[in-house]
């Protein structure tokens, strides 16, 4: 099967029922997308599919062929970081960091939909669990990125 | 002769040299250059500091990064004393020598009352106890990250090692140029002389390695440029681009994945196993039976070419589970703890005056019972470890707070000496005490033994992680206070009951050090016996129980529930005496100026008594000392659709000298969310030996929409650094409970809050 991940076309041999999360992590060695709960409850595995934030632990790979998949590895580059990544550093968001890939992908999908999100928009979009409790800095960083992007 | 004369110059200048036996610990932990791993072109100057050819500095890192910022704070100490920018310091995993052991963590477990420990005069028992434990800890060299002790432990040692390395480098230049050391300048990793001579650390490193440091002088705090600065964390770039490597991200060529499935009942084990169906599934390689390692429950693991296939196959293994001989039940435990408080004698952690003395005429007795449930850690990265066993050698990659204990556990499982185990510590996707256990490492190694030469990553599904944790133990306490007719505090008596953690942990991870009888475990009574409040008569005792539930250290440990008990009860007293909660505390803190200053700062910033909260909202306050730091929090709370809603938390603290105020603020913010999650939702229920909560929907976490804003204010201090990772947790539950009382006149005496 062919997958379009971060703009590259990749061939994988996988059972169509295999969740995208494990295709990324175990078959493609793309470990930036994390496993947290396996039931779409925590958001650590969030990726973007055709721009939308999707929980990859419950997304069968068979359904995403031909769609544009973006993972944390494709959000920005070292030389051209995404405005969210820059804002995340400026606000010193992460602690342990394990949930942050998913947070960033959810935030990226939000900003694409709502370039100037209100607090209510942020509340609605950011349902990911952060066990270290970085939420208030996540909110500040999203607002900062929205300002710099505009 | 000449060499000595030049070197003596290095002792001149500002700063004080620690003398006598106090200085010995630092020097004894300086270590040898040979203790650091040799790399291409790098030169070690002692057991902590290496210099690279381009003058970058490498610091040996014995502590695990689990979010608390230690991989930035410790390099800040080294950068300061070596006069290099923080960006020029990198870290590498420390080796296994005793110098890397965490002395402060063990010292922190001594059951001394802060009033005794603070006194300079007399109190030989405290001094002797500390001296002995520190000496033992240095000999033992237990490398562990816990007890909010990393900076406190590194404070003298890392600065001393860095200053010693700097002295060697300056000494080498002094010898080479035949110029007195005190005339040399050091900046940005370059040693220079006003005449124009200059050499970089990289150029000097080789000769510096043969130059003794002489007397080592630490910088005076007026000269600090890195310590105390809100330096950006060094670990964040990798955490925003997906390259940070946690345990689950270890990838070794040819590796396989194993899924764990433990007996559903705590202490159960597999009986008859039929693995035929599982083995026939695609990609499946092996089914391994696991005994109860490291105090965990027994079970099976399935090895396959992906975790997804391994997990499906693990569910397809047909197992007849054998029940444990006795089934634990949390309702029964709760009842037995209350019974223990009433009927059994406890260990007296503190006694002052005589609480049995008849109360003055007209005085009142106020009594209340409090309780807190079992809690799971729920680190977002589930338990996991990667292992390869071949030809009598073991290689392990583990997200762990106790690398040495993991190494010992791996060696025990395979039956090889510890030096046949190579252990790599990864980043931790949360620790909170769960990764002070070695069960998952022993299991991974056992699985790897069955596929020799193949690296295997064992992963716990979330459901196993939640149902087979080492839980924060359930505790109950009876608090009783006497107040005089005029409202003066007379006596405070607290009797609590619950399982001891430390001896159970020792049995699991350090069997050789574990004793036949349990010594009194301070963690049970911390936050109860060691209060700052000046009740003339006090007695705090704890009844140790043995409930059969696997229990472990949970962020802020005993303080996490005991602060809820005491700080809610203090509010009850204030209410009964019709006093303002802040004023009442101030009255009880006459002899505790440090606590009073923290309380005052929080109250002032929160507008306590000066700016009334918005209609429908109320403020609650709590003050608590833990891990050497004093934290006060004021929570602003309302009731939203029948549930408590915390809008704002003002947090003031005194944590001694601050190494990085940005990290301190991060930790306070995170601790509030961690403590609030527990106070609002956290409970583990066990019925017939089976943990009822399985995943996040049953064990909810606070999420962004419900998160309060946390403001952090730090009291300036010149004391040595104290804990930061945990002390923000204890006050939030009582602060919110006290605000809820102000709103509803209903007192919450058990957690989580039920409205």
Automatic annotation (TrEMBL), chain A:
Coiled-coil portions: none
Domain 2Fe-2S ferredoxin-type: 1-75
InterPro entries to which the protein is assigned, alphabetical: 2Fe-2S-bd, 2Fe-2S-bd_dom_sf, 2Fe-2S_ferredoxin-like_sf, 2Fe-2S_ferredoxin-type, 2Fe2S_fd_BS, Beta-grasp_dom_sf, Diverse_Oxidoreductases
Gene Ontology terms for molecular function: 2 iron, 2 sulfur cluster binding; metal ion binding; oxidoreductase activity
PANTHER family hit by this protein: BLR6218 PROTEIN, OXIDOREDUCTASE WITH IRON-SULFUR SUBUNIT
Signal sequence, start to end: none
Pfam families associated with the record: Fer2, Fer2_2
UniProt name for this protein: (2Fe-2S)-binding protein
PROSITE patterns, per the entry: 2FE2S_FER_1 (PS00197), 2FE2S_FER_2 (PS51085)
Automatic annotation (TrEMBL), chain B:
Domain of life: Bacteria
Organism: Ramlibacter ginsenosidimutans
Coiled-coil regions listed: none
Domain Aldehyde oxidase/xanthine dehydrogenase a/b hammerhead: from-to ranges: 241-325
Protein name (database record): Xanthine dehydrogenase family protein molybdopterin-binding subunit
One MF annotation (Gene Ontology) recorded for this entry: oxidoreductase activity
């Amino acid at each position: 099967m062919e997958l379009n991940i971060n703009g590259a076309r990749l061939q994988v041999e996988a059972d169509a029922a295999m969740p995208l999360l494990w295709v990324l992590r175990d078959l493609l060695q793309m470990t930036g997308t994390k496993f947290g709960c396996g039931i779409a409850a925590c958001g650590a595995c969030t990726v973007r599919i055709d721009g939308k934030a999707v929980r990859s632990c419950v997304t069968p790979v068979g359904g995403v062929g031909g769609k544009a998949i973006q993972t944390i590895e494709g959000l920005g580059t070292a030389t051209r970081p995404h405005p969210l990544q820059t804002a995340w550093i400026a606000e010193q968001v992460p602690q342990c960091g394990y949930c942050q890939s998913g947070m960033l992908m959810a935030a990226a999908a939000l900003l694409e939909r709502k370039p100037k999100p209100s607090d209510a928009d942020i509340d609605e979009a950011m349902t990911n669990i952060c066990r270290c409790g970085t939420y208030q800095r996540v909110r500040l960083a999203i607002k900062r990125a929205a300002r710099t992007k505009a | 002769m000449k060499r000595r004369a030049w070197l003596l110059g290095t002792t001149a200048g500002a700063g004080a040299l620690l003398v006598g036996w106090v200085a010995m610990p630092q020097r004894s932990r300086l270590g040898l250059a040979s203790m650091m791993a040799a790399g291409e072109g790098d030169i070690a100057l002692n057991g902590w500091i290496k210099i690279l050819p381009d003058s970058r500095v490498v610091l040996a890192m014995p502590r695990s990064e689990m979010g608390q910022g230690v991989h930035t704070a410790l390099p800040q100490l080294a950068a300061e004393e070596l006069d290099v920018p923080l960006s020029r310091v990198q870290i590498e995993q420390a080796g296994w020598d005793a110098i890397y052991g965490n002395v402060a963590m063990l010292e922190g477990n001594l059951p001394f009352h802060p009033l005794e420990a603070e006194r300079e005069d007399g109190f030989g028992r405290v001094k002797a106890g500390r001296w002995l434990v520190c000496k033992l800890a240095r000999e033992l060299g237990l490398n562990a990250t816990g007890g909010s002790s990393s900076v406190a432990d590194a404070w003298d040692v890392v600065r001393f090692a860095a200053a010693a390395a700097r002295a060697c480098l300056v000494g080498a230049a002094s010898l080479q140029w035949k110029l007195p050391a005190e005339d040399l300048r050091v900046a940005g990793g370059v040693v220079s002389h006003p005449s124009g001579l200059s050499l970089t650390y990289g150029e000097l490193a080789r000769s510096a390695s043969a130059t003794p440091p002489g007397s080592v002088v630490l910088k005076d705090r007026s000269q600090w440029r890195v310590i105390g600065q809100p330096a950006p964390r060094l670990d964040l770039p990798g955490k925003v681009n997906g390259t940070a490597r946690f345990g689950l991200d270890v990838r070794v060529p040819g590796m396989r994945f194993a899924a764990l499935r433990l007996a559903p009942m705590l202490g159960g084990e597999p009986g008859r196993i039929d693995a035929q169906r599982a083995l026939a599934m695609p990609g499946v390689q092996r089914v391994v039976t696991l005994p109860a390692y490291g105090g965990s429950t027994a079970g099976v693991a399935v090895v396959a070419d992906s975790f997804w296939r391994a997990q499906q196959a693990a569910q397809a293994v047909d197992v007849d589970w054998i029940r444990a001989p006795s089934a634990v039940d949390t309702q029964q435990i709760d009842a037995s703890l209350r019974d223990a408080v009433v009927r059994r004698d406890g260990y007296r952690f503190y006694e002052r005056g005589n609480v049995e003395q008849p109360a003055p005429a007209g005085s009142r007795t106020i009594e209340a019972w409090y309780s807190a449930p079992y809690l799971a850690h729920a680190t977002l990265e589930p338990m996991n470890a990667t292992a390869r066993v071949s030809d009598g050698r073991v290689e392990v990659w583990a997200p762990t707070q106790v690398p040495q204990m993991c190494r010992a556990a791996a060696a025990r499982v395979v039956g090889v000496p510890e030096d046949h185990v190579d252990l790599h510590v990864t980043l931790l996707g949360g620790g909170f005490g769960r990764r002070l256990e070695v069960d998952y490492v022993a299991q991974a190694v056992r699985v790897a033994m069955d596929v020799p030469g193949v690296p295997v990553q064992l992963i716990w599904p979330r459901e196993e992680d939640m149902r087979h944790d080492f839980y924060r133990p359930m505790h109950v306490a009876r608090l009783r206070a006497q107040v005089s007719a005029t409202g003066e505090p007379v006596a405070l008596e607290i009797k609590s009951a619950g399982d001891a953690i430390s001896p159970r942990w020792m049995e699991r991870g350090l069997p050789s050090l574990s004793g036949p009888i349990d010594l009194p475990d301070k963690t049970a009574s911390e936050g109860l016996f060691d209060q700052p409040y000046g009740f003339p008569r006090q007695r705090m005792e704890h009844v140790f129980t043995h409930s059969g539930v696997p229990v472990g250290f949970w962020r802020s440990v005993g303080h996490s529930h005991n602060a809820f008990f005491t700080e809610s009860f203090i509010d009850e007293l204030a209410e009964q005496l019709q006093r303002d909660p802040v004023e009442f505390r101030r009255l009880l803190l006459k002899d505790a100026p440090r606590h009073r200053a923290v309380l005052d700062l929080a109250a002032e910033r929160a507008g306590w008594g000066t700016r009334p909260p918005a209609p429908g909202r109320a403020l609650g306050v709590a003050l608590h000392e833990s891990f050497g730091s004093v934290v006060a929090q004021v929570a602003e709370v309302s009731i939203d659709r029948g549930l408590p809603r915390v809008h704002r938390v003002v947090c003031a603290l005194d944590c001694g000298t601050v190494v990085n105020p940005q990290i301190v603020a991060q930790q306070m913010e995170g601790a509030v969310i961690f403590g609030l999650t527990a106070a609002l939702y956290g409970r583990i229920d066990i019925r017939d030996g089976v943990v009822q909560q399985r995943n996040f929907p049953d064990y909810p976490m606070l999420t962004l929409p419900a998160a309060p804003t946390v403001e952090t204010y730090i009291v300036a201090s010149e004391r040595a650094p104290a804990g930061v990772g945990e002390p923000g947790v204890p006050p939030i539950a009582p602060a919110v409970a006290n605000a809820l009382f102000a709103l509803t006149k209903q007192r919450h005496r058990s957690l989580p809050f039920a409205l």
